Amino acid sequence: MPLDHDEAIRVLLNRRGRLLASIFIQTRDMHCAEDVYQDVLLKLIKTQEPFDGPDNVWRWARVVARHATVDLMRQRHRQAVSLQADVLDLLETELDGDPQTPHAEELEALRHCLAAMNPQSRQILELRYRQSLSGVELATRLGRPAKSVYVTMSRLYRKLAECISARVRGEVAGG
Fold it and tell me: How many CA atoms lie within 13 A of 97 on its CB side?
């Protein structure tokens, strides 16, 4: 039995975070990711296509989002991050998991850990991920050797991972 139009929209709204994450991985820009998500939602609202169930809506939304991401990046004269097919498959497998799986703890832990970092570390992460600078571009911007920047980034990743893990374990144990 096909989903009614309102149910299909509810599916997409309930999986907003997962779709945004998928789009963000390709655009590396949260504003662009939001624009693409809004385009997908608008197309869903306008479509008359019947959906057989929530999984059908989800697959449709991911395909539409992928195409919309490429189109938006072309319009803005930027290149979407090109992921290998096996990496995209892995990502989609994760995104196909239980949509009710809470990721809020990890996001809150990330926010806390980023806020606890020193300003220089936050600046490096900001340049790398919000401004999408490559390691070499980051080294040039900071006036440091590329190898030094790669070592710093590796340490920051490890520090963030440890902080997030400790924070999540603490919340789970205390909750």
Answer: 12
